[in-house]
Amino acid sequence: MPEAISTTGMSRAALAFIFATALINSIGFGVMLPVLPDLIMEISGEPLSAAARYGGWLAVSYAAMQFLFSPTIGNLSDRFGRRPVLLLSLFVMGINYLAMGFATNLATLFAGRIISGMGASTNSTVNAYIADTVVGDRRAEYFGYMGAAFGLGFIVGPLIGGLLGDIDPRWPLFAAAILSFVNMVFGFFILPESLAPEHRREFRWERANPIGTLLALRKYPVVIGIVLVIFLYNFALSAMPNVWSFFVIERFEWTPREVGYSLGYTGVLMVIVQTVVIRLIL
Q1: For residue 34, which of 266, 274, 272 has the smallest C-alpha distance?
Q2: Under DSSP, is residue 105 helix (H, G, I), strand (E, B) or coil?
Q3: pTM, rounded to two decimals
């Protein structure tokens, strides 16, 4: 890993940008869940049963791009710095949400979801920015903020999607685009680069791909077990939200607003468990 720059901490403005970036990544996942069935049916002209199959493949394409590109984007930030990678990813995500909002066919919708998966693969860069700029005991605190951002995004995203989706299934995508562009402009003016040129390293493909990353874990047997547990956890966690909206629309005829409320409620429970219950158990 590149050597971190020793500083006493991160400015409030920089922390706000980093937190907002992690939040927008999470919102981008959740904002589509309440409106995805209606959006697919509108674009494809097919019933809910067919829309559910398309929705599953959209979820796979988004996750696959995150799996493939997270190491690449992380290594690009090691080579060119954190700031340009974070700003560019927000720009790409904003353009992508606009394209999806104006989509008139499934090909455009799939292309947008693939690009959004690539653009949202910046969690490693966000954490690297914290590691660069925060030292000592406060580093764990700041990493905790990023976890809180994910939980908050899983509350805010479905709520935005549900409330705006009740008006038009495309409006939540336009809202996500606005959030991405506003945060990009904010970061352009306030975010300093955290990785000095002398601490950067050459970009190499053997490090910038998921297979190379997984093979590197052979050096750390204990980590392999932890990664397996995280995989199984996320496998179960991802199944529910990707099926939920199709199920409740078919079974209970819920509207996007009701779907958004239910997923937002789930997000609230996640935050309570992560911030209170787990701490008490530990």
Answers
A1: 266
A2: coil
A3: 0.85
